[in-house]
Design goal:
The protein has eight helices and seven strands. By secondary structure, the chain is α/β, with parallel strands linked by helices.
């Protein structure tokens, strides 16, 4: 990623990143480390975190890996406590743990629906709640990774749409309730990001050209686009931005979900 921001824009900050081993939040963790933050990454399995930890450390950053399932509040509390024990504080929480698969609503099981809501929505709340005292102490901030799927309607994605609508509600409510503690709470809603494993797995090649035509800027996004948005929102340049979910999709959702 080109150096749009000052190298030390997050110097001295500690960021706790869920889903930080891969994908969008893996990219955000990497970018934050490149700009001075100390990083803690968490996932259900520690082995999923090792490659990112090694990459960050080999490039001069600091990275602490700790396993935790965001659906398990006790496990999240433990991961937060270990991070504080390791670094002494937490300044930034990034909620990126997520689940997704394509399924028509009339074929979707209750368990499948509930699993995604538990990971995305309940998991986001669990991490925010477990980190509250540390964020209150540091006058820190939360950044929730959402989506645009629920802004209109997205076929085959009712479970994710419901889950991410809940994430947006958490962002708005906590920004109001916790603003008095000096905690900013914002979100990012990525559009189609082509260099993610999820997009490669979920999007047939035949649809890519059709979707591209529905994006006013004429291209899919890159993880670097989300990294840049996250760096901005986490920086002092955004110190008066609170309760916003920033859409980073090239204007795609304004065109609707039809592929005609």
């Amino acid at each position: 990623m080109s150096n749009i921001f000052a190298d030390n824009i997050l110097l001295g900050k500690v960021a706790f990143v869920t889903g930080g081993g891969t994908g969008i939040t893996g990219g955000v963790a990497r970018a934050f480390a490149e700009h001075g933050a100390k990083i803690a990454i968490t996932s259900r399995k520690e082995e999923n975190l090792i490659p990112m930890k090694q990459f960050i450390e080999e490039n001069g950053g600091e990275c602490f890996a700790v396993a935790a399932d965001v659906r398990d509040f006790d496990a999240v509390q433990n991961a937060i406590a270990k991070t504080v024990e390791h670094y002494g504080k937490i300044d930034i929480v990034i909620n990126g743990a997520a689940g997704n698969f394509l399924c028509a609503a009339d074929q979707l099981s209750s368990n499948g629906f509930g699993t995604v809501v538990d990971i995305d929505t309940k998991g986001t709340f669990n991490v925010c709640r477990a980190a509250f005292e540390e964020l209150q102490s540091s006058k820190g901030q939360i950044l929730n990774i959402s989506a645009t799927l629920h802004y209109l309607a997205t076929p085959m994605q009712i479970h994710v749409s419901a889950a991410k609508a809940g994430v947006d509600a958490i962002t708005r409510n906590l920004s109001v309730e916790w603003g008095k503690h000096g905690i900013r709470v914002n979100g990012i809603a990525p559009g189609p990001i082509e260099d993610t494993e999820g997009m490669k797995r979920l999007l047939p090649d035949a649809l890519k050209e059709k979707i591209t035509r529905k994006i006013p800027l004429g291209r899919f996004g890159k993880i670097a686009d989300i990294e840049n948005a996250a760096l901005f929102l986490a920086s002092d340049a955004a110190s008066y931005i609170n309760g916003v979910t920033l859409v980073v999709d090239g204007g795609q959702w304004l065109q609707g979900t039809s592929l005609a």
